[in-house]
Amino acid sequence: MIQFISTFLAHFRREDEEGQTLVEYGLLLALIAIIVIVALLFLGPIVSQIFQNVGDNLQGT
Q1: Which pLDDT value is given to residue 36?
Q2: Residue 57: phi, psi to the nearest 5?
Q3: DSSP 8-state code for residue 61
Q4: In angstroms, rounded to a whole number, what is the distance separating the alpha carbons of residues 23 and 15?
Q5: pLDDT tens sequence across 5-59
Q6: Could you give the CA distance from residue 6 to residue 39 in angstroms, rounded to a whole number?
């Protein structure tokens, strides 16, 4: 009986760790997404201007 209880509790501990890892990956993914969005908001106009300059130079030649 004690072996069954300890095996049962060990099973729940493993699942908790797997769930915790999944939550950590989800939070990390959300943080990366926020960083990418902020970077695009700040760098978007700069990159757009660079492409505009390249396009203007290609049409001018």
Answers
A1: 93
A2: -70, -35
A3: -
A4: 12
A5: 777 667 666 555 666 788 889 899 999 999 999 999 999 999 999 999 999 999 8
A6: 49
User: In the 8-state DSSP scheme, what is residue 59?
Assistant: H
CA 10 to CA 33: how far, in whole Å? Answer: 35
Write the secondary structure of 3-52 as one string of H (helix), E (strand) and C (coil): HHHHHHHHHHHHHHHHHHHHHHHHHHHHHHHHHHHHHHHHHHHHHHHHHH
| Residue-level pLDDT at 49 | 93
Q: Longest C-alpha distance within the chain, in Å?
A: 85
- Say whether 1 sits in a helix, a strand or coil: coil
Q: Tokens 């959300």 map to which residue?
A: 30
